[in-house]
Task: structure prediction
Amino acid sequence: MKHVAFDLSSFGGILFRIGCVIALVLGLMYGTLKLVERSKDPLRQGIEQYLAETTNMFVSIDSLNEVTFFPRIRFDLRNIMMRQNTDQDTLQVKIESLDIAMPFWQLVWGQSAFEALSLKNIFIKKDIWFPYDLVLTHVQVEHDLKTERPVLRAEGAYGGKSASFYLELESKPKSEESFLYYIRTGKPLSLTLGDKVLSGLYNIHDQKIMLSQATLSGNGKTYGPADVVFKQPGRDQTDVLSCLLNQSPVLSLKDTHPCVHFFKPETEVQTP
Result:
């Protein structure tokens, strides 16, 4: 059998060339991203066009205050407005400010981590995405004063009744002053719509957002615990979140409430 000599110096040369190519590609990518960051107005127009195509509405953004792509992706937008047409009186959606930041490499490797998330003064007119008006003062990551844990929190009103959302997050220090936030399964989630409170543990199963050990309470009653589908993928509305959003916010919780059947055996459900 003929033996082939392995030339370490040649192997090292190959590794060096590969390293040079990788460095060149990364350098070009970095330079391109930095050039793109300077072109704020074309980027703003591109975001407007993307949102218009996605929502099938006329979209305008007053300003793109900051945009970066490396080493973190960040968008800081002001006054995002969506209308049925160019008429100023057809406003359907308004977001006063949106600021989101996530590490570039975390996104490249498919890891859902973010450094910051803040939306303020959101208005969504009824029958656009929900049956009733949705007004939120804020949606943001903050540290809960009671538990001292990071949470994603939203507060405002739905159909004129108080509404709030709470999801506990996991955090890891990035530096002395900043953190990376992750959405993890098994964390407490709570949704309040008027006098109704839905709570449980966040989970994912077959692309469905699940609530384990979920309860629905209000008006002195509590249903559950049970494992329920919180949100189906796509436009499928056979889930407890869609059920609650489709009911009048003033409808009190009782045995005949349409959403109670998620927490009771079919044989116990009473017909309204």
